[in-house]
Design a protein that fits this description.
single chain; 195 residues; mainly alpha; 73% helix
């Protein structure tokens, strides 16, 4: 992917998607050194996009979702906060449900990191609703789901079902990071492992 050439805005989008793909691999492999490198590249690319706009929104939304997950992995909490907020704003511009689902999954990981396991499980369900299906083969979904099952036990299934039962508009509103922190989930009563 990196060896192909694009021009103008196409080049930036190609680089962004290559980094998003690499970030997904890094998160599964747990390579913190590579996470630091790709996180830095994503910061540069995303900063180059400027303010949220419809033209870049698809790439920017998934870029911010990937950067948030890397920031959580690296323990950069304030950076993760910014990425989920901006990623959500960008995803709203797209009105594209799979893009909203990708951001929703990042917000779920972020909510779990903040000690909101119950809310995170609802968000994983809301992301599945927006995607249109479960994603049982995604290593990132599998890892987050397993972590939340360990946190919540049997309660996970009810929380997940709550998210899946939402209609598209309610699922879109539910993945808003501001709502995830203000909802009635558990406070930081445990320090979860990085996903």
């Amino acid at each position: 992917m990196r060896e192909t050439r694009s021009y103008g805005a196409g080049e930036m989008l190609r680089n962004l998607l290559a980094d998003v793909t690499e970030a997904a691999i890094i998160l599964v492999d747990g390579d913190d050194g590579a996470a630091q490198v790709v996180h830095g590249r994503l910061h540069e690319l995303l900063a180059g996009l400027g303010e949220p706009n419809v033209y870049h929104a698809h790439g920017a939304a998934v870029g911010h979702a990937a950067a948030a997950a890397l920031a959580l992995r690296l323990g950069c909490d304030a950076d993760a906060d910014e990425h989920v907020v901006v990623g959500y704003r960008q995803a709203l511009l797209t009105n594209d449900r799979p893009i909203l689902a990708a951001v929703g999954l990042a917000v779920a990981g972020w909510a779990r990191d903040r000690g909101r396991a119950r809310e995170a499980a609802v968000l994983v369900g809301a992301a599945a609703r927006l995607r249109g299906t479960d994603d049982p083969t995604s290593p990132l979904v599998i890892r987050l789901t397993e972590a939340l099952r360990a946190d919540l036990g049997a309660e996970f299934d009810a929380c997940y079902a709550e998210g899946v039962a939402l209609d598209a508009a309610a699922a879109t509103a539910r993945i808003d990071p501001a709502r995830a922190l203000s909802s009635s989930g558990r406070h930081r009563d445990q320090v979860p492992s990085r996903w």
